[in-house]
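Box 3.1 — From sequence to structure: Helix-turn-helix domain-containing protein
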Amino acid sequence: MNISIGIIDFLMLALVVQGLILAIVLAFSSGRIHSNRYIAAFIFVVAESTLLMELDYLGLVQKYPWLLTAVVPLNMALGPLVYLYARSLAFGAVTPRRKILIHFVPTVLYAKHQVIFILYVLGVLSVPLVSNLYVLPITQKILFGFNSLSLIPAFLSLVIYSLVTYNMVSGGINSEDLSAYRKADLKWIKMLVQIVFVLISIWFVSIVAGYLFPIPDLEPWFHYCLYIPAIVFVYWLGMMVYKRQRIMSRDEMQEYIKQPVKTHFKDDEASDYYDQLKKLMIADNLYMNPVLKVDMLAARLSIPEKGLSNLLNQYVGKNFNDFVNEFRVEEAKRKLIDPRYGNFTIAAIALECGFNSLATFQRVFKQITGVTPSQYQTNAKKSFVEK
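Predicted structure (token representation):
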């Protein structure tokens, strides 16, 4: 059998290879950010599914039947990976391994070739009763036949998990208990799930079209319409996640991955300490110190470092970086519209307000205000002119 590869198949295989490599790189570079491992697995599953589709339509599965046993379709894992990624990224939740594995048990539904191979090796298929059942046409059709309806379990799994994820994210965006980082992550996840819904819609159309028009020449195109945008999406997704991971500073990384701190203050004690903390920050402009750390601020309050972290998490609902950066952003907002700083660049203003770099300043400023520093400055000037 001669294998002919068209330009579309060649480009898709190239994207598949890049997607698999990107998934591996992202998984090994994620460090302690467990959420990135879920998205790496998601990229891997989409790339693997695209590869299996290509192997089928290029005739390689027919030429090398052992491929069916060597590769397990993982479509049922797509939905759980979307949910676990969102949960881990948005809330920093570390799910016990046993509970994680439960989500992936249904994946065995698509491991029929592997199950058949194991039964063959164990000699179960040679048992007369099993053998007679195995050779029935209806059994062979169920086990080895393929049509669009066979994708329905994976499709429904992705739909259900995506809806649950979207509902969880939408409910969390307005929560006052989350830090600015977490809220930014929720908006990021919400956008990703919306894109997944678009892909689900395309998938639904391809399933219906494949069922209504079972024409061999058209069947590959039904799949191309789904897999091309899907593989492009996960390639873009991998690059964006890797980029987001790389631009985080060391301090931000530590603040980002740490687990929630247990609370120890009563409400009246927390309120008193918080009032002292705000007065101290405003009176001495401590936030303008670019190397301000938790221990330095705790020493000024005469409480342990852990006590300050507890105070911020319990009473303020923010981590240390978010708390300090809000003061810095407010100071930056004043300086951006102050004529006395008209000759200052945005980078200079960032340094004046205690930020270590322009990139960090721009990212934090947009997370808190919703606009970039330059947009805020432009909008303020327009508002002043209109008045």
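Summary of the box: The mean pLDDT is 80.
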